[in-house]
Write a structure and sequence with these properties.
The protein is of the alpha+beta class and 425 residues long. The protein has ten helices and 18 strands. Its cofactor is Zn(2+); Co(2+).
Amino acid sequence: MTQTQRLTDEIAARSDELTALARELIRIPTLNPPGEHYRDICEFLAARLKRRDFTVHLLRATGAPGDSDRHPRWNLIARREGARPGECVHFNSHIDVVEVGHGWTVDPFEGLVRDGRVYGRGACDMKGGLAASVIAAEAFVDLCPGFSGAVEISATADEETGGYGGVAWLAEQGWFGPDRVQHVIIPEPLNKDRICLGHRGVWWAEVETMGRIGHGSMPFLGDCAVRHMGAVIDEMEQTLFPALGARRTEMPVVPPQAQASSLNINSIHGGQAELPGDFTGFPAPVVPDSCRMIIDRRFLIEEDLAEVKAEFAALMERVRDRREDFRFEIRDLHEVIPTMTDRDAPVVGAVARAVRRVFGREPEYVVSPGTYDQKHIDRIGRMHNCIAYGPGILDLAHQPDEWVGIDDMADSARVMALALAELLA
């Protein structure tokens, strides 16, 4: 029996164990924000991996954004050395999940199994992928104890809020340096027959328009900042949105609509703060002197970040030219440069050949519409041999009744194990 067949059969034999592991991970409610139960899930995984002779490190990202004594940013890195020197293959999964939201018909933290699926918040994004990588690594080290190099598994914090308390911090500390890690696979839910090479860029900014406070019965004595913001939005509708929609990228972004530039208005806050829910009175009649808008601009690898910012600044200047007493500020919040791994990178080739063996067809090469932790591995860690590959359907992420298919997890685990065998055995 070939090594490929042995690994494939072994993953199939561990399907129930894979399902159970995914359920156990879902039952730990690692909600972010604020960052609940990070240490609990790290300790759970540490106890399991120590039984396979992984050396385990629990690492707190002290001082990172969001880290506090109440909600410490804990991360896990587990490493299993092989019998001979060689390269390291690293599986990186984030442990945090977004808020539950409304519309669920099942308990979001039960890990319900029904009709070949495991349901729960984080099932798809990305505890199913984390479980698949653990099972793949365990099966590989059990069946191929003489492998060269090392296998690493990480469980990291805060990807949903930028990854600064997780992969970014770890990369700054050298954990993803090319001297100790040579191949990285991130089991994000991009579908089991796809290889994700990278992602678009992002610029978040806060835009504020300023006015003058006044009495609501005499708005002519004030200057309404919300009306100024309305003029900004109208200019966006008339000029910016059509321009962005007309731009296309050569990156294979999915879905196809995301192959254009885009901008989302994340939030708008103008005037008085919202009153507490138990307040039974009425708001005061005041002309708002400030209105703040958060914009989320996604840009293409063909675009330059400085030009992206300049384009929006020019829009604001056009509005100022038409409006008396128009004042504004633009404050940068967050930015990420687009990234895309070469198709001929070693980890891409190994995973592609594993996909062919498992599914009998060529993988689809895609790029994610949103960013994920590859940005930190690439830019901070300087480790460019990195992809996303994992089970799950991206459209289910952050949705009510989120689920991951059991067969999809097992198939992805087969691909991961075969990629390990090629790169290390």
